[in-house]
Amino acid sequence: MTTNFPQPQYPTTKLLVAIAVTGLALLALWWGIRDAAQLTPEVYRGGVLGLLVATAGHLAGTLVGSALAPSKGAASAYLASTAARFILTPILAVLVSSFLPVKAQPLLVGAATGYLLILVADIGTMLKAMKQPGSSTR
Prior knowledge:
- There is one protein chain.
- With 138 residues, the chain is an all-alpha fold.
- The protein is 80% helix and 0% strand.
- The protein contains four helices and no strands.
- Helix 3 (74-99) runs antiparallel to helix 4 (104-130).
């Protein structure tokens, strides 16, 4: 006997909000650490740019997943979204460090840290949405 369960929808809006909120929280945390750790302006700017790059990579990857979701389903679209983020974030970091006068090391550390922390929030959001089959998660 085959039972057809409704497939969960790709939660584009929830993912975009989770990424934006987490990115802003990380920027606020970095701003708070600046004085306590006595960061130089170059290191601070590099970290900010790295966090912005990570946030942009996640946002772009989510939009890739959203575009694929209608034809591939939410789970496959999320996998493609994760792959896109994994590829886009370091490419964006290298481009930013090449074109802007900023130290590469703080930018790359900020991008890697931001990528991983935003990914945790993103995975939590997606898992919560996947547990609610058939409900509108947009």
